[in-house]
Design brief:
Elements (H helix, E strand, L loop, with lengths): L8 H11 L7 E3 L7 H13 L5 E3 L4 H9 L1
Helix pairs in contact: 1-2
Length: about 70
């Protein structure tokens, strides 16, 4: 699953629907400090809408933060 910066709900839905075809996959939700409560609610709504069964809310790793800093 490609790394995404959420902002486009339609794109997120497309990626999640495609990801469903991957057996045993787990979606990792890694909100940044800039993410709002609404952003998190929107992502969790998409998890429900697309029928994702396995997902986890996790902290950003140091490598994730460095990747985002480059953008």
């Amino acid at each position: 699953l490609p790394e995404m910066v959420v902002g486009d709900a339609a794109r997120l839905r497309q990626v999640l629907l495609k990801f469903q075809q991957t057996p045993g996959g787990v979606v990792l939700i890694k909100p940044t400090n800039q993410a709002s409560y609404q952003n998190l609610v929107d992502v969790l709504d998409e998890m429900n809408i697309t029928g994702q069964r396995k997902y986890a809310l996790v902290d950003l790793s140091k490598a994730d933060k460095e990747l985002l800093a480059v953008r």
